Amino acid sequence: MYKIETEAKGLVSHGVNACAGCGLELVFRTVIRALGEDTIVIIPPGCAALFSGIDNVTNIKIAGYQCNLENTAASAAGVRAGLDAQGNTHTTVLAFAGDGATADIGLQSLSGMMERGDRILYVCYDNEAYMNTGIQGSGASPYGAGTTTTPAGKPTYKKDLLKIAIAHHIPYAAACSAANLPDLEKKVKKAKDAKGPAFLHVHTPCPTGWAYPPGKSVEVCRMAIETGAWVLYEYENGRITVNRKIKELRPINDYLCLQGRFKHMTKADMEILQNETSCRYSELLASEG
Amino acid sequence: MAQYKMLDGNGAAVQAVSMADVKVVAAYPITPQSPIAEKLSDMIARKTMDAQFIRVESEHSALSCALGAQLTGIRAATATASVGLALMHEICNAVSGMRIPMVMPVVNRALASPWSLWCDHQDSMAERDSGWLQFYCENVQEIFDLMLMAYKVAEHEKVLLPAMVCFDGFFLSHSMQKVLVPEQEEVREFVGPYQKKNFWLDPADPVFINDLISLEEFTEMKYQMMKGFEAAEKVFADAASEFESRFGRKLQMLEGYRTEDAETILVGMGSMTGTMKHFVNEQRKQGSKVGAVKVTCFRPFPAKQMKALTQNAGRIAVFDRSAGLGTMGGPLFHETLSAVGSHMIIKNYIGGLGGRDVSPATIRRMYEDILSAKTTSNVPVWIDAKEHPMEIREVLRYV
Ligand SMILES: Cc1ncc(C[n+]2csc(CCOP(=O)(O)OP(=O)(O)O)c2C)c(N)n1
Ligand code: SF4
Ligand SMILES: [Mg+2]
Predict the structure, then answer these.
(1) Range B254-389: architecture per CATH
(2) ipTM for the whole predicted complex goes beyond 0.95
(3) Mean of the pLDDT values across residues A167-188?
(4) Given this model, what pLDDT does residue B343 score?
């Protein structure tokens, strides 16, 4: 066993090797703080693996392991079953994966886990591209976003991951944001006590991949909410609740213009995205209740 | 008291898993392994086996679940065949690299393409460098026995490597045979309770497993695995003598059959070795000095034992049940050749692919060919191919 030399504050060490201004770091710290040490965490490759550590140094005082890119949910399901078999029903099994590991290559194992109803808390931090491998486009990259594999802007819409999760009739699913940590913490605590799979989809700003100054992560992420590009809502006991209703959505351009990744969007493209954003927001409001 | 049961190969694997205190099973159906997944889920549902069953959506997830489960400090199981094993490939390496001593029955079936439901060894041969021990079974009793041996060897602290127990699809998986099954208590005493020996997941004593490794340590970790394989030979031998004293059956990594004075030796693996022994007996009646080597343990490959068993022979015929494309022969040939050297005449025979039966006639053809061979050859003989193979479904118009 490794010896833990110092009792640093909290369960995540200070000074991790994420980029300056990384939204993921905020999200990870918040989730781990809310769950406490009776947790086992499964992390696939991606930026979250920065918390796994390198060599014999880890950044977290939480039991866990780094799985493969496609099998976060299956790995967590195995751990849950192993604990259950030994009568341990108290430990939270946390799957913590990026949008690529969740919406794309890991979608199959995630779907299997949710359909079976395994008691897993699955957190997808969505930075809307494969950041760790160099900002390649993912199924969760938004329309128009420039990435290294969508250099002219992504020609298709963002995959609606949360709707996919909800389609599995799981007990709890919610959209969260790095711009609203109290809301995230509240949802983590709810999710922890769910009677089956709980899925949290967290909008996670990434200064490196989205191309904005590192000091503006929260501002950018907040603007996503103001414009309806990201909507905070919950699915609980079969009902959808929009947590933060916006009286009048700000124009989508207020969000896009803060980031370099949208800089080549044409007016026509922006209109397409504006339409899609407004429609999705009204649809969500209409599906409440 | 041990009792005889009529079991097919899948049934024998299930019997062993269910007696080995396995706590989590995750399995995905594939011909000819499906009865293993069905039977285990049935036993768990009826509570005749005290374990959790995870009804996974793929083999990739099956092995991933088993990996996660075993890391919590219990025995976990899965089983697969063919393309299912190929789908697991990535996780096979994760399991061995994390030094998780999992035991997995592999029901040998050809890999697509073309699609075939039937037996050959291409699936497990493609995993021969994935860091798993590999045992191959001659008959149904051996499936049960080698499963128990696999737990014992894999979990030994000097080994800590996962193990595949490979057996021929349909020829063994669906063949009903008489199997002597010991009492649960006897199995428990032999296999022992599962002991967490390397890393495990425990929130009260947290460790983060399997993070990124720099070039400083990667080589050394692979070296440690190599040492595990090295240790496995002695551990296997010790476990086999304990097995023999408890259960009365002798298991060897390599079995030499009438090899002492043999001038010609046939080498094979899996169910075909029964036929080889039968052939040897027939030939011996006519005074031919022929013997056979059955390779039970392909990983680690017991090279020294192979050399010792064959040193006095003049001719060796190696039968591979996988094609060994693009090289001088199949994997078993390569292993045998590097173990024994080429001071005798040694040749490779490819056959039994995609379910083609390795009959006494096929073995006779191989025997006649090796007897007439003038030198060692690096060109394999496709011993049971039809006469004009290029005329079947034209592959290249201009050949
Ligand atoms: C099977 C497989 N394919 C590709 C990779 C390479 N890879 C590592 S991380 C990654 C992207 C992960 O993206 P995401 O899940 O969104 O996490 P992020 O890097 O954005 O934090 C890829 C493609 C891999 N590890 N495994
Ligand atoms: S690339 Fe983005 S997500 Fe990854 S560490 Fe940097 S800021 Fe965080
Ligand atoms: Mg990402």
Answers:
(1) 3-Layer(aba) Sandwich (3.40)
(2) yes
(3) 98
(4) 87
